[in-house]
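Hi W.,

Here's what went into the run:
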Amino acid sequence: MTITSTAVKTCAVKKWLLSSTVAFTCLTAPAAVAGPIENYSPVTPARLENPEPGNWMLYRRTYDGQGYSPLNQINTTNVKNMVPAWTFATGVIEGHEAPPLVNNGVMFITTPMGQVIALNAKTGDQYWRYKRELPEDLFQLHPTNRGVGLWQDKLYLATTDDHLVALDAKTGKVLWDKKVQDYKKGQYLTLMPLIVDGKVMVGGSGGEFGVRGYVVAYDAEDGKELWRTFTIPGEGEPGHDTWSGDDWKSGGGSAWMTGTYDKDTKTVYWGVGNAAPWPGGMHPGDNLYTSSVIALDPATGKIKTHFQYHQNDSWDWDEVDAPMLVDLQRDGRSFKSLIHPGRDAIFWVLERTPERINYVNGWNFVHTDVWKGIEPETGRPIVDPEHKPTLGKRVDFCPSLWGGKDWPSAAYSQNTRFVYVPANENFCGGFTGEKVPLVPGQLWLGTKPEDIGLTVRPGADHFGELQAWDPATGKKVWAHNFPKSQLFGSVTATAGDLVLVGGTNDRMLRAFHAKTGELLWEQKTNSGIMGMPVAYEVDGTQYIAVQSGWGVDAQRIQDALAKGNIGLEDNVPQGGVVWVFAVKK
Amino acid sequence: MHDHPTRRSVVFGTLAACASVASAAADDDDPRKEKRPQKGDLLVFSEGEREGQTITPNDLKIGEPPIHAWPKDAANAIVRDGSRLNEVLVIRLDPRELDEDTLPRAADGIVAYSAICSHAGCPVTAWIKATEGNDDVFKCMCHNSEYDPRRGAQVVFGPAPRRLAALPLVIRDGALVIAAPFIGKVGGQQG
Ligand code: FES
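Here's what came out:
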């Protein structure tokens, strides 16, 4: 790996090539001076547990995963006057899925291919850039990254060649570099690490390569591995009997998104992915803890409890997006909830206690033909076998492999108390299950890849659907439909009663009225937006920031739709740009 | 640690006639296993029941999907499976369909290409009907890039930025032999 500080490097080259005049110009240029960050604010445990309103230092800003900013300077009245303040081209293609993180005026963004860029959040000038040198034989099913973890004066980057790298936040210098797993076996990392009490936690990707998923914690100081918890129980562990034979060894359950954290009970909630390979007939049993949420003790990695959203996953329905922690009033009582609009099309409302996760309620938030209902006592969905993929038979099901909502996050507004879901409606899928041997490093889907279909329900009048739900009543409050696009981007809510989302193939960032769903503002960007918008403040001015950079699954859906010839745009340009907006004074 | 490669090849070169395949192939660290395919290498099956066996022209029929192969330094009985960047796809096509770049690299219609997608480096595994057109093409299932082996494996669909590297072949004494190193860059884009 290398560290480059672009402006300094450019000066050095020019000095060598030309004359001292050039060197002088470089040294005295006022803007875009790269270099160490002065007066960096250490990210303390207290600041992470109770972040200042103007900062965005965790994946969803707060440990509870709500994706809500208390800033309201930009609001429903003045958002119409919002204009770009600055932009910054990353110089990288593929899916830019990371939130721009902001700590007291310093912005950190990550890009695909393992780059981290530190910027002045007010001016857009670069402080430093770290570029990972990836191995030449690396393959990337998901060439992306979802952000660096912040802790004290360090940053933590999880890479697609399966390393965890600690950087000096002020300089971008590498402090340590640990191999987490072997990329040659289809293991990789794309998530933003979750850091609690000095423990840097990451979960592995690779569910399509027949891995056994895990969450692992490292000491933030020296990178020592502290614990590793497999998401599929081994022999002698509770839940192992939900597998048959040796299926557990390659059963998937990858844990490739950042967890959420309850600081009161010191419990981390981590989403777990699909079972592998896809057809359930190749791994009979409930298959714990695939398609589940697990509650972990961050001190030891011990699994305290779990809830499995659906059993014997056969649809590639990862449930990796960690549930939001929300204090909820429902049915005449107050309780601490977990809220998860699932890839399996069920909007899950659960109750969390220190010992258990209890099912409270669940309903379909998009059309599905897979579930006949949910057992009220256990929360176990009742499957229609006609729509459950199996071996040797073509089976179709709704929603598609990408589910009702994929990994892009929903948001919860503490103002409106609504949940905003980036849903996809009217998509279905199907494939024929086939026994395929596992070849390490090759896709292992349990079907012929060319057989995988994305279809559209007859009479569909839209695909993407931004939904507002009241979790207290289970009522849909409003929805905004996208007739010509999927919706594949994370949602952010603000105290200015704005709901911000990109995710469409027309390259727009949009702001909606949180109470009514009215479209208040939109701006076309350079590429499609898959990552999440953030809100932050510097020197009394509020900004909205987002990365625009299309790729990965949003592009795959796009290809499939274009191929289906249903009149959708198939050419969304690639290339990452950070966009920062402010209200014109 | 392994022996110095030059010294080893001298030793094995001398003993080639009687050296057992197993003893040479057993040393996983041998740098010749990682070396890209060389002129004079044979091709062996990289998977399936015949893994490790030499591929002959008779193993390839027009209309059949490609065979996944490793190059093999036959003189030293070294299968070059030390890097996934060495895996190739071998297929027999109708020579009349081959374009002017491809024909000189083909041996009786048999062509070989790197099996590593130029997009993000996944293995190219499928042989299926093209998204646009009726011909079968190589397809990488990671993000749907398609390559036409009749036309130098140029990209005909998907995000791949460039064609697959080509591996020229000849038939010598009835055996399929690599005629020259890869033409073009092997591996995915990294930045
Ligand atoms: S790696 Fe082959 S299409 Fe992306």
